[in-house]
Amino acid sequence: MLNKEIWFVTGSQDLYGEDTLKQVAKDSQQIVEGLNASGKIPVHIVYKPTVKSPMEITDICLQASSTKNCIGIITWMHTFSPAKMWIKGLSVLNKPLCHLHTQFNAEVPWETIDMDFMNLNQSAHGDREFGHMMTRMRKNRKIVVGHWQTEHVQQKLGNWSRVAMGWDEFQNLKVARIGDNMREVSVTDGDKVEAQLRFGFSVNGYDSSDVVEHINALSQEEVDELVKEYEDSYVLGDKLKTNGAQRQSLIDAAKIELGLRKFLDAGDFKAFTDTFENLGELKQLPGIATQRLMADGYGFGGEGDWKTSALLRALKVMASGMEGGTSFMEDYTYHFTPQKAYVMGSHMLEICPSIAAAKPSCEIHPLGIGGKEDPVRLVFNSPAGPAINVSLVDLGNRFRLVVNEVDAVEPMGKLPNLPVARVLWDAKPNLEVAATAWILAGGAHHTVYSQALTTEFMEDFADMAGIELVVIDKDTTIREFKNQLNANEAYYHLFKNNL
């Protein structure tokens, strides 16, 4: 995302005179330099001249909206900036906005403070005027409060900028749906037209034959090179080693990965789905291919789940360079005991090795669904630690983002006969409440699981998208959760034309 940028726009007015405005500009430039040097913000922040009139404000908002590399703006009112000046500009702005409520100086200079100082440093005054107008206009935005030099403020700005990166990705994302939705399944399907209107990404259908064309054009050298990479990168099962009983399956898996990559690259797709019900001439369901593509940042959803595929890609972009992995996931089975209940998350094949606790093993096992040859896959456990599970669902009249905060734990056994990647987690506040709330919210069985991101990222994302967010965390109770869902239903019905 080195070519992306966020603009820093400071508001004031001509009332204060040339000397004050020069100081405003100087202070704003220093703040931008400090934020860029902080190491907390992954996107370059660009200083923009102070805006002092309705025309200047409208011009900068139009420029930000039409500049492809600009993914959002940070606004700050150094002095008082009458908010009626902002109406037209905010009306045309179509990029995410973060309102930084700070001031240049950290402390009051008790011995020297006078009215000149007060008139210059009145963000406490100016930002409230600005905030009122955004609320009056029902403008979604992020508000960050605190001194700009503190790590806390810089981290919040960094988190918001990462979400802006993910939102920008949505605006340009193309999702390839290889095959259709799994037959008769509801939650993985939805309104693709409405999704494009709301989020920006497009979803279109393709056949497995479109991938096979690229497989048939591969050279032997390409295949041999990737097989060697498998051997060097993973613990290879005996059946897949040279002269192993199913060595050809490893070669076929490499061909599928190469062909799938070429298909995605040729169409500029950064996310895709497949389904075991429409594999055509593919010899096996893409296992290791899908896992490695996710590790490289591609979005994926099983059985035609285009919403989860797109969401995974956005979250991959948000989490770029952060510690902890992000993967396609499914709530698969439960571990009930009188003391504690846990969720075993997994899928048939497709869990991203970015969440692996150790070097994965490359194995081959039968797959009792799909009617194809045994697929090759990476098998591993995921490390313990905090994470989130996120689901994007279509409720017919709106989209809802469902988040459950979880704590991954070490498996209680070695799982020698489970031939898939997996993660065991403790759902907050406990499994009974979490599962009840998830089902009440209509959350899907497919999710995006992330050890890198937190609920704050998802809150910012829902605000940018203008969609509903419900969170299941340590404080959730079913009675309050039901009341929240009912209130949300009324809110989105009453205000649907404004969202």
Relevant terms:
alpha/beta, 38% helix, 499 residues
List the helices and strands and how they pair.
Elements: E1 5-11, H1 18-37, E2 44-47, H2 54-66, E3 70-77, H3 87-92, E4 97-101, H4 115-120, H5 123-136, E5 142-145, H6 151-172, E6 174-178, H7 192-199, E7 202-206, H8 208-216, H9 220-233, E8 235-236, H10 247-266, E9 271-274, H11 288-295, E10 299-302, H12 306-318, E11 326-336, E12 341-346, E13 361-364, E14 376-379, E15 385-394, E16 399-409, E17 422-427, H13 431-440, E18 446-450, H14 455-465, E19 468-472, H15 478-494
Parallel strand pairs: 1-2, 1-3, 3-4, 4-5, 6-7, 6-9, 8-13, 9-10, 16-19
Antiparallel strand pairs: 11-12, 11-18, 12-17, 13-14, 15-16, 15-18, 16-17
Describe what you observe in this structure.
- The chain has 499 residues and is of the alpha/beta class.
- 38% of the residues lie in helices and 22% in strands.
- It contains 15 helices and 19 strands.
- The chain has a 6-stranded antiparallel β-barrel. Strands 2-1-3-4-5 form a 5-stranded parallel sheet, with helices on both faces. Strands 7-6-9-10 form a 4-stranded parallel sheet, sandwiched between helices.
- β3, α3 and β4 form a beta-alpha-beta unit.
- α8 (208-216) packs across α10.
- The radius of gyration is 25 Å and the shape is elongated.
- The two termini are 29 Å apart.
- The model has no long low-confidence stretch (mean pLDDT 96).
* Strand percent estimate: 15-25%
Report the uncertain regions: none
* Helix-and-strand structural type: alpha/beta
Distance between the termini: 29 Å
Overall geometry comes to: elongated
Task: Give the strand order of the largest sheet, numbering strands 1, 2, ... along the chain.
Answer: 11-12-17-16-15-18
Mean pLDDT: 96
Radius of gyration: 25 Å
Mind summarizing the main beta sheet?
6 strands, antiparallel, barrel
Give me the number of helical elements.
15
Extended strand count: 19
Helix content: 25-40%
